[in-house]
């Protein structure tokens, strides 16, 4: 592998991992897809960076196409399943031992907020999900993102409109991060989420902010809410193992 390609992959590796997490839905899948992307890039050589205006667009676009081609065509789960996991009971107290460890509760509440919103994204078909992640989370222009995925701009716009509407329709009447009067509050759902193993203790605290998960005022905008989530990070050790594959 030439030096230019290796440097490009190293530079964008954290972003590629975070992107894979947002689309695939969990840390293990994000790592697996990042490993698969590196294998593709190593096989393609310098050609992996060709055909795109920038190294970033070449690599993120390649990751997007990899995700779309390998994830199931339909959503992995439905809004109804998400409802049954998180809203089967109004509230459920966390156990006393955990309640006496405020730093662990703090980390778990952030993990629940991110996991829940990522799971809502996972209720969209991958092609629709990708449009929202590329434009509304990563800030690419619509034509730019369509080119990265190799599809027509008109088709991309349909996907993006569908993604925004479905997310808004589901979250607007439920999520307290959008409206403080809404019924679904992370603090009241943590016990349920832990019992259902919907959320687990994060493997590290690198992507757990210092401020409380509910410090920000309700934003009433789905796109702003998603952009406010802390970006998921891989450990330096995991990144080093990925780089060693180059």
Share in helix: 55-70%
Overall structural domain count? 1
- CATH C-level class: Mainly Alpha
Strand content: under 5%
Helix-strand category: mainly alpha
* CATH architect. name: Up-down Bundle
CATH superfamily: PhyR, sigma-like (SL) domain
What is the fold-level CATH name, i.e. the topology? Answer: Butyryl-CoA Dehydrogenase, subunit A, domain 3
Task: State the separation between the terminal residues, measured CA to CA.
Answer: 7 Å
Rounded mean pLDDT is 92
Gyration radius, to the nearest Å? 19 Å
Treating each run of at least 4 consecutive H or I residues as one helix, how many helices?
A: 12
Give the tally of β-strands: 0
Stretches where pLDDT is under 50 for at least 5 consecutive residues are: none
């Amino acid at each position: 592998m030439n030096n230019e390609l290796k440097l490009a992959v190293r530079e964008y590796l954290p972003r590629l991992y975070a992107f894979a997490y947002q689309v695939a839905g969990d840390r293990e899948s994000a790592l697996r897809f990042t490993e698969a992307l590196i294998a593709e890039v190593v096989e393609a050589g310098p050609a992996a960076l060709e055909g795109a205006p920038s190294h970033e667009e070449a690599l993120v676009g390649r990751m997007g196409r990899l995700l779309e081609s390998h994830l199931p065509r339909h959503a992995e789960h439905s809004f109804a399943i998400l409802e049954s996991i998180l809203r089967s009971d109004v509230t459920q107290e966390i156990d006393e031992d955990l309640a006496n460890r405020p730093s662990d509760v703090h980390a778990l509440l952030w993990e629940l907020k991110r996991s829940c919103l990522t799971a809502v994204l996972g209720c969209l078909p991958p092609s629709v999900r990708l449009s929202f992640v590329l434009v509304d989370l990563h800030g690419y222009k619509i034509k730019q993102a369509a080119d990265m995925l190799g599809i027509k701009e008109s088709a991309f716009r349909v996907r993006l409109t569908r993604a925004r509407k479905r997310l808004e329709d589901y979250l607007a009447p439920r999520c307290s991060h959008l409206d403080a009067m809404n019924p679904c509050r992370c603090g009241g759902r943590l016990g349920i989420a832990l019992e259902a193993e919907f959320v687990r203790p994060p493997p590290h605290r690198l992507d757990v902010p210092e401020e409380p998960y509910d410090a920000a005022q309700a934003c009433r905008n789905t796109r702003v809410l998603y952009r406010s989530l802390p970006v998921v990070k891989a450990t330096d050790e995991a990144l080093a193992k990925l780089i060693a594959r180059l």
